[in-house]
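Researcher: Next entry in the queue.
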Amino acid sequence: MSTEQNIEIVRRYFDAVARGDLAAVGDAFSSDIEWHQPGKGTLSGLHSGKEAVFALLGQFMERSAGSFRIDTVGPLMAQGDLVTTWLHFRAERPGASISMSGVDVLRIADGRIREVWLFSEDQAAEDAFWG
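Model: Structure for this entry, 131 residues:
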C-alpha cells in the first residue's frame, strides 16, 4: 500500500475513535493486532488480538467512568508502513484526572492496523491514573 493509503487508514481509525464507532474501530484492526501499552501499570504490556485490544479499550472507559477522550490529533506522518502522530488525551474519575500529550506509532499491514506503540508525556502519571 502507498504511504497515502496508510495515512488514510489511520485517519479513518482516529475518526472512528472520535465518533465512538466501535465497529469501524474493529474494522481498522488486523485480527492479529499487537498493542504495546507503555508503562508499569495494570494495563501496561502487550495486548495481542482484537479481543484483547477491545478489552483494554473497555478498561480505559470503565476506569475513567466513560470520560476517556482523544481531544486533539496532530498531523499524520508516514514512512513506509509506519504512521505516526502526536495527540492529546484526557480522562477523569472521582478524585483524579489526567490530561497529557502522547505519540502513537501505528504499523499498517494488508490494509489494516497491525501494530500500535504508544508513548506518553508523563508515563508515571498515566500509570497512577489507570492503576
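Model: The beta strands are 29-37, 45-48, 69-73, 77-79, 82-93, 96-109, 112-120.
Researcher: Noted, moving on.
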